[in-house]
Amino acid sequence: MIRKYFILFFVVFMAGCAKPPVFEQYVEMEGQVWNRFDFLFFEMPVQENQLYDFYFDVWFTEDYPWNDIELNITFYESGGSMRSADYTFDFDKSESNTEAVFENKFTIIKGMQFGSAGICKIRVENKMHKMQTPGIKKVGLVARLSDSD
């Protein structure tokens, strides 16, 4: 019996240690299709010298025909600098919810620091090779304070 309480305490303790997002925004895809040239834009307030971890969250259906997604993600800092990179994220299609929707979360960058406080503009570009990317329900950008401080 004590073992059960210890396990319950440990699970509650670990859940309490997870840092909540400081930014979280999602875009629902009309008709569950992401057009190749529909760039997504996010605006996040940032603090000078604060470290952030960024994640890309994608919800997709069984209609998604590939096993990965290719993106370009660009950060435009309020001070004028820019950071851009291409990403290929491999999907895990092993577990879906009751609506046959899969959710995958991917790390974009950890410990990103900004030289000045202000608004960081983030652009996400779909780099898949077809004009229409079917089966994308929604995508989102999530940021948490970094554990690297």
Give structural notes.
The structure is a single chain. With 149 residues, the chain is mainly beta. The protein has one domain: Sandwich (Jelly Rolls), CATH 2.60.120. It contains one helix and ten strands; from the N terminus they run αββββββββββ. It has one helix at residues 2-17; strands spanning 23-28, 33-35, 40-46, 51-61, 68-76, 82-90, 101-113, 118-126, 132-134, 136-145. It has a four-stranded antiparallel β-sheet, with no helix packed on it. Strands 3-8-5-6 form a four-stranded antiparallel β-sheet, with no helix packed on it. It has a two-stranded antiparallel ribbon with strand order 2-9. The longest helix is centred in the first third of the chain and has 16 residues, at 2-17. The radius of gyration is 18 Å and the shape is globular. The termini are far apart. Mean pLDDT is 89; it is low at 4-16.
CATH fold node name: Jelly Rolls
Largest sheet: 4 strands, antiparallel
Q: What is the helix/strand order?
A: HEEEEEEEEEE
CATH architect. name: Sandwich
Describe, in short, the structure shown:
With 149 residues, the chain is mainly beta. Helix content is 11%, strand content 54%.
Question: What are its keywords?
Answer:
149 residues; mainly beta; 4-stranded antiparallel beta sheet
